[in-house]
Amino acid sequence: MDYPAPVLPPLLVLVSILAQDGCSKCDHLGVLPCTAHRDVGEDAPSAENPVLFCSFAGACAACGGALWIDCPRCEGGPRTAEITARRAAVAAWMQLDALETAMGRAVPRLETRRFALVVDVAELPDGTKPGGTKKVQGHALAHRLAQDVEHVAGRIAAHYAIEDKDYRAKMRMWIWPALEPHQKATETFLGTLARGDFKALGRDPVLSVWTEPVLFDDVTKVRTLFAHNAAHMLLSNAFEPVWVGGDGNGGWFDAGLAHWYEYELFGRTANYCIEEATLLQNWENGVWRAALRRRLEKEQGPLLPGVFQKRTGAMTQPEHALCWSFYDYLVAEHSAALRPLLIELKKKRPARELLAKHLGLDLPTAEAAWRVWVSATYPLKGDEPRPAKKK
Fold first, then answer.
1. Any long-range contacts for 225-228 (C-beta under 8 Å, 24+ apart)?
2. For residue 96, which of 100, 114, 168, 372 is within the disulfide window of CB 3.0 to 4.6 Å?
3. Taking the chain, what is the end-to-end CA distance rounded to the nearest angstrom?
4. How many helices (H) and strands (E) does the chain have?
């Protein structure tokens, strides 16, 4: 007589399946976290961790950069194939790239969705307190920079409705421990023997800098530099690979945006893309709201027409601050205009015509509206913005 097969309760079915893959040691996954990364904050790529590949992790003998190892007590589980594939992907990425081939050695590097970073420094002073002795290891700095520049990329994506297809390249950003490797990299990839920081914008953006004393010799200085230039690079490459800051039509826009994303992340700005700049002081110590409000309420003559005629690099520090503030106004009051403004500035269409087209304002009226907005939202002391009154 035939009997029907026994029907197991759902819980027993689950237990039966789990017993076939993995074991209790690995929670039936077939893999275990690699303990070599517990103290350095390595984690798998996620919304919170933008790092896709890291050469520091890739050098790990235990996991090969996958951050997981095979469970020694079982023959594998549901994550075994995934981790094996991840280990192979990291190994392929760890092969010397064009930069490393040119330098004749491997360099510490990370890759994120939008950036390819080189952080070739052993450690740097933290820089948060004058005279402080706290040091940050190069690996930790690399991850901080990755978080910073991807934060900038995220804010830009929100402001400009940017998608993956809108970019033409990854942004390459390098920091070197001395002048010699910096110059070797810039000569090979940028065609110049730069002494200071140097970048190329547009189709294949690159920034190279070294830990130059006073300028870029601590973590705080390097982080603000990378955030500032990440904005320049991203928006020079998006939509059409054209940098708008090189002429007197879009310099105001380019200068303003780079300061805005640096300021938004760090609460101040410290970097200026000014040609032949030798001064180290920072206008109003990079904290601008109150100073700009006082200036605008004191000086009644038009200020924007002057900066609308200049390249990014030809402006003074106070003019950079004006550009930042006008961009601040655009973000707050005309955010929908940012994308078309950038796209049409890249096509060399006159900035004054674009204000009329996308803001409905000519330049004098736009300046008047911006001044009213500054008086309403910037404080007279401190830097905390005041909420704009509802219309």
1. 225/197, 225/270, 225/271, 226/145, 226/148, 226/149, 226/173, 227/148, 227/149, 227/151, 227/152, 227/261, 227/262, 227/265, 227/266, 228/258, 228/259, 228/261, 228/262, 228/269, 228/270, 228/271
2. 100
3. 84
4. 14, 10
Q: How many CB atoms lie within 10 A of CB 36?
A: 15
**Domain residue limits, the chain:** 26-95, 98-241, 245-273+283-391
Q: Which of 309, 230, 314 is nearest to 274 (CA)?
A: 314
Mean pLDDT by 10 residues, the chain (391 residues): 45 42 89 86 84 96 96 94 97 96 97 98 91 90 97 98 96 98 96 93 97 95 98 98 96 98 97 73 94 96 96 96 98 98 98 98 98 97 82 51
What architecture is the 98-241 domain classified under in CATH? 3-Layer(aba) Sandwich (3.40)
Give me the long-range contacts of 152-159 (CB less than 8 A, separation at least 24).
152/227, 152/230, 152/231, 152/234, 152/261, 152/265, 153/113, 153/114, 153/115, 153/230, 153/234, 155/261, 155/264, 156/231, 156/234, 156/235, 156/238, 156/261, 159/331, 159/335, 159/338, 159/339
User: E strands of the chain, at which residues?
Assistant: 31-33, 51-54, 68-70, 109-112, 115-119, 123-125, 135-137, 171-176, 198-200, 206-210
pLDDT at 388: 67
Per-residue pLDDT, 37:
87
**CA nearest 386: which of 290, 299, 322, 267?**
290
